[in-house]
């Protein structure tokens, strides 16, 4: 297929330009659209649309003309089309985040622009025609509640929310003489434990503050730069200035000057600089309820390992940055960070039944475990992340009470993780009136194809009605969203991002989200994490290598004994090793990698395969998907007779040993492979590259940004195993010249050092916490209206959905005898939610 080189401006209209394009190739297009509608009602994905288009045109010259023209561009940019003969409705995405919907008549080729709502109704007709035509079907329009919120305009600006907010706040503060009042109010509210910071209540006007700043700046200019703040603190108190400006005369002067410039002529650079100095964040709560959250013997087994590694490293980075800032602010406050997770009484030898646990290598950070409770008491056993919804409301209440008790007050920032943590963070932040950030890690809607329209089929296993509803509530409640990559938000040229797929979607029979979340919203930010470089360091740093672990790693990789920890063996130890480590589920695609290897004789001749994933025995797992993948793995090993060439190791939870394991793989001149069908970020990619391992990673998601293909690693298509395994085989063929392996290894390390460190991450996120705190203050009225709408949606929709998920005591019965799931929304005309939401929306719009 020829690449389309046309450009498309956001102001251009597909609906306006498409009729002329159809007219130019009318004969071929009538044939094409006849093919589209020939099979009746259906949803067609882009590859099907392109295939039918190419089959409709016999003449190669004419085909090239169409494909390279505006029409080819439109079809190439179409993510899917809904066929309802004689009409075909197209969802066109010419650029990341930009969508247009058009409907074409297959006979006369007339074109009409349609709304997202109309497109979704067309799509629903395929799955639930009665509901699609019900005028009382529940529609949710979150976008209608933020009419004055400024949006970014360029796809290239997506994810730069904090910068955009800084520019917007600067303009707002510049608007009039009274416009500085919100900033003054923000500064007056700064305190810790009731102690005022920076300024006290003597300042009731901006002019008074400016005068005091001028006097103070002249005064400190006459002091030696290293003069401690305590030496001149009494003088500052005379002017109404409190602690928090700095630890020495030099840093105090810089902060005074920074605020003076903001008050005199606000600009984004000075505003961001000032908020990097404001003493506004000391206590942080991080929420991650599901899974076994521990530091030893467990890393979230079986369903959240990467998330826990991320959070533990995040906490260390936050604490280091907070301690540095507090010192530079001239304060002696001890910051506190609480990671709030679930207490699991049946902890299986881990510390997950311990309420409060210090986080290793930190001074002021702890894991706080709060149990899930029901009317009958504490839930004893582990609960899958797909089954947690009935417990979250009570959990949020219990956790909030514990947090306030331990911190002796409200936290300054609350950060949620994954669907459950983000929902609990939303409930807690709303209740306490605290700035909130959220991190998705993975949005399941994009991991399971068509899981929105096919939610009813998947409901008994995954409870996606709860999950997608919770995701929408959290996304729209939070003040800012932290993402690891641009792709996580807005995808790539050809594939929508995780968040972008929530722009407009439908759960037929339940709810139609005509406006879910807009990726041009300024709440989106990119802050890429790193890896703990005390654990993941290059294999070449011989003096730091953990040689005491080598005998255990030798046994793990090469012993010929099968046991609970490993199975299979490596006959030829001289071969390099292809290595992969991930959760054992469908999306992580470890069994896919095993099959690619099994099928590629050339690759098998060049390298061995070692995978670290899940349990080896299905009876050891409680996770439905993992059990299925274990059985699949065993069948693949038998099918391709991989014994002697493959080692399967059970999930490893010792991070320190895992770091040395990566380096031992590098010693063999091997490579790391991340074969996921989709990966939001890819912490293991960062870890492997930190250790100097050349890395092959999925081109679907974050790893495509981390790796520069062919330079610092390689992209692989997880849907084309033959191509992926061929790419690996070619690499190892070239590595017969050792300099090539070294070249890719070195380039990977350079990429990490330039872009992916925890220091950069912590600075960005803490600055977000401060800047979005002021943004909340500037948008109180609009925020309150949206908050009421979200509370209504939560109370009338999510609560009812959560009741359909069996609680832990019922799970054994449910698995023994599956029951149909009753969803309380198939009769929206009998449910007050739609009417109330509609009234709320109209009222906010001004009664339109």
TrEMBL record:
Residues 270-558 form the Sucrose synthase first GT-B domain. It catalyses: an NDP-alpha-D-glucose + D-fructose = a ribonucleoside 5'-diphosphate + sucrose + H(+). It holds the Pfam family SUS_EPBD. Residues 564-743 form the Glycosyl transferase family domain. One of its GO terms (molecular function) is sucrose synthase activity. It comes from Musa acuminata subsp. malaccensis (Wild banana). Residues 10-124 form the Sucrose synthase N-terminal domain. Its EC number is 2.4.1.13. Residues 160-247 form the Sucrose synthase EPBD domain. Keywords: Glycosyltransferase, Transferase. It comes from the Eukaryota. Belongs to the glycosyltransferase 1 family. Plant sucrose synthase subfamily. GO terms for biological process: sucrose metabolic process. Sucrose-cleaving enzyme that provides UDP-glucose and fructose for various metabolic pathways. This is Sucrose synthase. It is an enzyme of class 2 (transferase).
């Amino acid at each position: 297929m020829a690449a389309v080189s046309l450009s498309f401006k956001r102001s251009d209209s597909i609906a306006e330009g498409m009729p002329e394009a159809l007219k130019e190739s009318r004969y071929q297009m009538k044939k094409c659209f006849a093919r589209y509608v020939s099979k009746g009602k259906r949803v067609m994905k882009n590859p099907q649309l392109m295939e039918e288009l190419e089959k409709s045109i016999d003449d190669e010259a004419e085909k090239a003309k169409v494909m390279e023209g505006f029409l080819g561009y439109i079809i190439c940019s179409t993510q899917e089309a809904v066929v309802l003969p004689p009409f075909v409705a197209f969802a066109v995405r010419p650029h990341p985040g930009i969508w247009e919907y058009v409907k074409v008549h297959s006979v006369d080729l007339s074109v009409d622009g349609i709304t997202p709502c109309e497109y979704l109704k067309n799509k629903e007709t395929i799955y639930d025609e009665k509901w699609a035509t019900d005028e009382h079907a529940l529609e949710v329009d979150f976008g209608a509640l933020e009419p004055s919120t400024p949006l970014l305009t360029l796809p290239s600006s997506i994810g730069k929310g904090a910068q955009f907010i800084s520019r917007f706040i600067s303009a707002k503060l510049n608007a009039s003489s009274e416009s500085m009042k919100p900033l003054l109010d923000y500064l007056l509210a700064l305190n810790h434990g009731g102690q005022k910071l920076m300024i006290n209540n003597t300042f009731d006007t901006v002019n008074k503050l400016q005068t005091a700043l001028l006097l103070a700046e002249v005064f400190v200019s006459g002091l030696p730069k290293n003069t401690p703040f305590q030496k001149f603190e009494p003088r500052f108190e005379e002017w109404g200035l409190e602690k928090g400006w700095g630890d020495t005369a030099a840093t105090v002067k810089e902060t005074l000057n920074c605020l003076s410039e903001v008050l005199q002529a606000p600009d984004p650079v000075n505003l961001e600089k000032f908020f990097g100095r404001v003493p506004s964040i000391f206590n942080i709560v991080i929420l991650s309820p599901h899974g076994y959250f521990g530091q030893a013997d467990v890393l979230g087994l079986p369903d959240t390992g990467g998330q826990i590694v991320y959070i533990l490293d995040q906490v260390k980075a936050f604490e280091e940055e907070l301690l540095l800032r507090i010192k530079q602010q001239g304060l002696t406050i001890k910051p506190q960070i609480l990671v709030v997770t679930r207490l699991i009484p049946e902890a299986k030898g881990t510390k997950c039944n311990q309420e409060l646990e210090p986080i290793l290598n930190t001074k002021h950070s702890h894991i706080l475990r709060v149990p899930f409770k029901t009317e009958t008491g504490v839930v004893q056993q582990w609960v899958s992340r797909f089954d947690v919804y009935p417990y979250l409301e009570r959990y949020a209440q219990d956790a909030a009470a514990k947090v306030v008790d331990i911190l002796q007050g409200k936290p300054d920032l609350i950060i949620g993780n994954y669907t459950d943590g983000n929902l609990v963070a939303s409930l807690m932040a709303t209740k306490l009136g605290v700035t909130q950030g959220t991190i998705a890690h993975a949005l399941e809607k994009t991991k399971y194809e068509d899981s929105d329209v096919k939610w009813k089929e998947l409901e008994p296993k995954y409870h996606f009605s709860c999950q997608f509803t919770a995701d929408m509530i959290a996304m729209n409640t939070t003040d800012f969203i932290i993402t690891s990559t641009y792709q996580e938000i807005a995808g790539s040229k050809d594939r929508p991002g995780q968040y972008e797929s929530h722009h407009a979607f439908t759960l037929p029979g339940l709810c139609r989200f005509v406006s879910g979340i807009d990726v041009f919203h300024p709440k989106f930010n990119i802050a890429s994490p790193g890896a703990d470089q005390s654990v993941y360091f290059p294999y070449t740093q011989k003096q730091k290598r953990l040689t005491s672990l080598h005998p255990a790693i030798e046994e793990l990789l090469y012993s010929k004994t099968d046991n609970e920890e490993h199975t299979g063996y490596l006959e030829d130890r001289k071969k390099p090793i292809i290595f992969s480590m991930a959760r054992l589920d469908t999306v992580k695609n470890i069994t896919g990698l095993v099959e690619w290897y099994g099928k590629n004789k050339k690759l098998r001749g060049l390298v061995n395969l070692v995978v670290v994933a899940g349990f080896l025995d299905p009876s050891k797992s409680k996770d439905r998907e993992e059990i299925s993948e274990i059985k699949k793995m065993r069948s693949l090993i038998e099918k391709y007779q991989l014994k002697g060439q493959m080692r399967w190791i059970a999930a490893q939870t010792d991070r320190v040993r895992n770091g040395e394991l990566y380096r031992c793989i590098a010693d063999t001149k091997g490579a790391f492979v991340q074969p996921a069908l989709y990966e939001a970020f890819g912490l293991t990619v960062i870890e492997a590259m930190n250790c100097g391992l050349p890395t092959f990673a999925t081109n679907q998601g974050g790893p495509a940004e981390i790796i520069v293909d062919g330079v610092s690693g390689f992209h692989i298509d997880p849907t084309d195993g033959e191509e992926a395994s061929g790419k690996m085989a070619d690499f190892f063929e070239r590595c017969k010249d050792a300099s090539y392996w070294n070249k890719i290894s070195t380039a990977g390390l350079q990429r990490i050092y330039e872009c992916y460190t925890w220091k950069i991450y912590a600075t960005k996120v803490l600055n977000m916490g401060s800047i979005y705190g002021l943004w909340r203050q500037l948008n109180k009225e609009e925020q309150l209206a949206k908050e009421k709408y979200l509370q209504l949606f939560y109370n009338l929709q999510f609560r009812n959905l959560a009741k359909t998920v069996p609680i832990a005591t019922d799970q054994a019965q449910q698995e023994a005898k599956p029951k149909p799931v009753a969803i309380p929304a198939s009769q929206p005309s009998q449910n007050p939610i739609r009417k109330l939401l509609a009234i709320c929306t109209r009222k906010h719009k001004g009664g339109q």
